[in-house]
Amino acid sequence: MEFIDLKSQYQHGRAQIGERIRAVLDHGQYIMGPEVAELEARLADYTGARHCITVASGTEALVISLMALGIGPGDEVITTPFSFIATAEAIVLVGATPVFVDIDRATCNIAASLIEPAVTARTRAIMPVSLYGQPADMDEINAIARRHGLAVVEDAAQSFGATYRNRKSCNLSTIGCTSFFPSKPLGCYGDGGALFTSDDALAAAAREIRVHGQSRRYVHTRVGVGGRMDTLQCAVVLAKLEHFEWELAERAKVAARYNALLSGRLGLVGCNPNRSSVVAQYTVVLEERERVQAALQAAGIPTAVHYPVPIHVQPAYAHLADADSCPVALEMAKKVMSLPFGPYMPAADTDRVAATLLAAAGVTLPDAASCA
Ligand SMILES: Cc1ncc(COP(=O)(O)O)c(C=O)c1O
Prior knowledge:
The chain has helices at residues 6-27, 34-47, 58-68, 86-93, 138-148, 200-210, 231-262, 289-298, 327-335, 347-360; strands spanning 51-55, 76-79, 97-100, 123-127, 151-155, 163-164, 167-168, 175-179, 193-197, 214-216, 219-220, 267-268, 275-276, 282-285, 336-339. Mean pLDDT is 96; it is low at 368-372. It is α/β, with parallel strands linked by helices. Strand 10 and strand 11 form a beta hairpin. It binds pyridoxal-5'-phosphate. Pyridoxal-5'-phosphate (PLP) is lined by residues 57-59, 83-84, 86-87, 129, 155, 157-158, 179, 181, 191, 193.
């Protein structure tokens, strides 16, 4: 069993992916070819944001967003310690300081109620992460940002396609950033990402920063990066987009099946009302994680931990915060475990994972037929 089954996905979309790749090889415009603008138009339309700017990766989307906002040395950005390292890394890379705020135990997303007390005269932005595919409390976060004149950059690397009050993730704040890393809900076959905004000036800045700060050929009006997404990767995303809505529906079915088998028997990362998760990871909460993981591994079931060490205690970041400033993040880092998951997961596999997991965790086996 695969943790994320990209091979079945490829078989499903093989014809379109092949056609799209061949078209690029035929026209030969490998950088900024027509598929780049086509994808940007499709994704802007999908999210409802006025602008989509594709970039080299999700990390690059975060860095370029902060650069476009003019955030740098002396500035603070409030964020969560319970994320992939790239979230805080982007803040440090532009010379600003991440300020870590603890998470909500139920969703593992940033605790909105803890953000405002962390705002200082130096705060320039809030960077919530839509962890495991579920947007954070964006209304509350946007309201705090409005009160203090801050930008909100949603790290939506895991949540493309999710919704919050019927609006799409990536279009919930000043800027939204996503990743097309192959295992993401909408992935390419290499590195890729995009940022979304409805602010024309920020979009223009991000477009320039993506190409070395160039406003016209060889005219560099600002400092930028080499941050383009290549045409072949855009072509792959265009092909996968054809199946994306269907895949989201299948993801929801697999998650519902897991929920029916596990809910009330094991701790689960919950989904709050008024929003949907694309379930980038299906994550359970356990006391004896290592032992349960070993039992699943022995049964041929791969698992993963997102994330075993919160950012504020990582060696390169520990000087920025007290270890005990985010106790819930420390606790959840010891307890979370993600299960094999994806739109192509057969029901029999979901059932086997759930049954093996419950047995390993010492929970009575449910009736699998009850959620068929
Ligand atoms: C929450 C989060 N932020 C940022 C990133 C960085 O994305 P990428 O790997 O495309 O640079 C990832 C992906 O791995 C992520 O999960």
